[in-house]
Write a structure and sequence with these properties.
The structure is a homodimer. Chain A is of the alpha/beta class. Chain A has eleven helices and eleven strands. At the A-B interface, α8 and α9 of A face α8 and α9 of B.
Amino acid sequence: MKEKIKISIDLMGGDNAPDKTISGINLFLKRNKNINDCFFYLFGDENIVKKKIEDSNYLNDNYKLIDTKIIVTNELSALSALKKGKGSSMWESISSQNSINADVTLSAGNTGVLLVMSKLILKTMEGIGKPALAGLWPSNDGSNIVLDLGANVECNDKNLVDFSEMGSALHKSLFPEKKAKVALLNIGSEELKGTETLKNAYTKLKILDGLGDFKFNGYIEGNQITSSDSNVIVTDGFTGNVALKTAEGVANFLTKNLKKSLSENIFSKLSILFSYFSLKKFKDKLDPRKYNGAIFLGLNGPVVKSHGGIDALGFSYSIELSYKIAKGNLINIIKNNLENIKKINEKG
Amino acid sequence: MKEKIKISIDLMGGDNAPDKTISGINLFLKRNKNINDCFFYLFGDENIVKKKIEDSNYLNDNYKLIDTKIIVTNELSALSALKKGKGSSMWESISSQNSINADVTLSAGNTGVLLVMSKLILKTMEGIGKPALAGLWPSNDGSNIVLDLGANVECNDKNLVDFSEMGSALHKSLFPEKKAKVALLNIGSEELKGTETLKNAYTKLKILDGLGDFKFNGYIEGNQITSSDSNVIVTDGFTGNVALKTAEGVANFLTKNLKKSLSENIFSKLSILFSYFSLKKFKDKLDPRKYNGAIFLGLNGPVVKSHGGIDALGFSYSIELSYKIAKGNLINIIKNNLENIKKINEKG
């Protein structure tokens, strides 16, 4: 029998949990009827979730429910969550990678707590200085990977090189048919621009270009994050987070203004009738829910963070992401990449 | 007789100069027939520009042409431009603030060279550590000011406080009817988040809140840059430049995808007929050309940088911006703000 992909899900994290998380699992299974090698470890309070799960149309013999009574709420600081959070649905869903060989953990709970708990339980991978949060951005020909999105406010050049290796491993696990093309986010494409940290990372990545598992494209500016010339965009967590939030803000601002314009008179309202399917396709293609899920990279096991405020459909896409990176052997690819760097460093 | 606002324009900078710059002046004058207190010092090669200016419909007795033979090209580094650039249209248009009392300088030429020349000729204002580039962003109720957009890759807390003072002075000169509301761009709105530099700037701005000429709103995230809650967004030049370019990229990406969707079939094409005026209004309102012009703040005179690649219409809006900040007494307001800080520091 084929080995199953074992996904551990924290049912209790995020807004409207556990309704959202359980509906999300159903939506994922409904959309992916061809996937038959998926098994869920579900963590939550049996009294609350059992009935909902049994009522589900798609969860049958493909799950195991693990009863956890403690819930990590959004109000807790990382420190108090660590004190009180042992045995919580979040804690146990991470620990299951050690105790019952789960392949990946997914939670929509408090980001800070999830990062700290994951680091404590799964430990940082040997050779990695700082773990990082990576996300998917829509691009001209599919999706680009951007990291770090906020795990590390300050980074050195070694961190940025690690992020390049981990980001291209993530790319390989998700899109094995495409070559990873790494670029450093900067404020100009000339070699002279940017901080010392960026210049040092540039020099190191130039050496790895071609030797490692990725092509190095040098610097890009913010307006090229959605381009298809590069598909792994590397930056520190402060800049990455500002870029991500700015992009969200601009997208919301534009669509809000567009909607307003299209509903201002009878002609424009009529036009929506004619363009309904085209506009729907436009909206569907760029629906942020499809890009839901940030991957915490650099630990000995993969952890996926779903947006806390997202709905069931958005949550279902973060399950898809979790399935893909586990199926794509993310952790092994990262380890291989790091071995490569080590060999190159030893030689050079 | 009322004192004229004297605008010095480098006719030779940017793509398609001097055609673009001269057409831009005409467009500005055509659009603003009510403005009758505007006088232009125009700098460029007489052999090239004289005929074009004389053919102009709107430039009559409201200008003086100053013949300059040297042109600062985009290929020059700042250093070689300084060596070769004395007497150029760019150099002379800046110097005119000292020699013939011009109120403001506008150029679409090489940004780096313009910044270095301006600093050298106009000198940094007493009390300011680093000058900064400020720009206008469309917001929910008009325009927000964002700075620094790239003049300073690294900034300390004093720089960020200076930027807050200068940004709110710029706000006052452009929108005297509204109160400036300053916010620091960060990766979370909680006081605990961000770099040490940001935390120190936060503490200092909290003290100035209410005492100075602005309200201090604390931290905001990238998705609030277009909100109307704050209207002066302060950040270092690296982050500001990445945010600006990312916003441009996302806006282009979305409009390109929208156009594609709306032209994919006969129904959606038909819909464009019905929504033509609404879509045009949408496009007009958010036309990036209307937001053209970055203001170099912190020198003893105002310098405006137009986008080099923008067309005549875009250039005409940077003339409007130059006129407004000179008319609004930007430099005096900045000086007053700095006096205020000085007094507060002396007292406290």
